[in-house]
Design brief:
Strand order of the largest sheet: 4-3-5-2-1-6-10-11-9
Shape: globular
Number of strands: 11
Radius of gyration: 17 Å
Oligomer: single chain
Structural class: alpha/beta
Order of helices and strands: EHEHHEEHEHEEEEHHEHE
């Protein structure tokens, strides 16, 4: 396998499936099965999941909700998604731990770096909830931060698009896909992969990012094995 320890970043919207909001049980189960395959291959898996399918702080602010309050609501949404994913993964026999940046001992462990690494070493899937625990920071930033802290080899950003294009492929049929691209070229071309804080943090720590289609069965396993799936961003 090309990687030993990975951080998988999933958007909250990915859990909606064909729904307008909330969680699609079929999509949740499909993701759990994909994760199980790589865990059984000995890969150490950490996951950060967004909360946009339930609540997004920025859109809440535009509707009159205080930005800080809205961001905390979004953090709680990521924990709800984390609990759902944890349940789906454990239902098929894989041990997990949910660690949160906001303390709520009744449902999850508080995030402690050494504890997270130990869980990974024991073969447990570690799900990080609550973002960074601070408003004004996205789950993309949380994903990069946690990946650096646990010493992940790569960030795998699972989306519904099969990589990075020079324009939106869902709008422009002539959009050109990149198999690989450097950090500098991403910035120069103004490509939106992650928010600026997250991307800069990844660049400064030489942490590669692979953007791929998580909804296609088998893709996650192919990425782990080193196949050219999606788009790789590195120096």
């Amino acid at each position: 396998m090309a990687y030993k320890r990975i951080l998988l970043k999933l958007s909250g919207e990915a859990l909606m499936g064909d729904r307008q909001y909330g969680i699609d049980p079929k999509r949740l189960s499909a993701y759990a099965e994909e994760i199980k395959k790589i865990v059984e291959n000995g890969i150490e898996v950490a996951i950060v999941i967004g909360g946009g399918n339930i609540f997004r702080g920025v859109s809440g602010a535009s509707n009159g909700i205080d930005r800080v309050q809205g961001d905390y609501m979004g953090m709680l949404a990521t924990i709800i998604n984390g609990l759902a994913l944890q349940s789906a993964i454990e239902a098929i026999g894989i041990k997990t731990r949910l660690l949160t940046a906001i303390k709520m001992e009744q449902v999850a462990e508080p995030f402690i770096k050494r504890r997270a690494v130990r869980h990974l070493e024991k073969g447990r899937v570690v799900i990080f909830g609550g973002g960074t625990g601070n408003p004004y920071f996205t789950t993309d930033t949380a994903a990069v931060l946690r990946a650096i802290e646990i010493g992940a080899d790569v960030i795998l950003k699972g989306t519904r698009v099969d990589g990075i294009y020079n324009s939106d492929p869902e709008i422009n049929k002539d959009a050109i896909k990149f198999d690989s691209i450097t950090y500098e070229d991403v910035l120069r071309k103004g490509l939106k992969i992650m928010d600026t804080t997250a991307f800069t943090l990844s660049q400064e720590n030489n942490l590669p990012i692979i953007v791929f289609d998580m909804n296609k069965e088998g893709n996650l396993e192919k990425v782990i094995s080193g196949e050219t799936i999606g788009t790789k961003v590195d120096k």
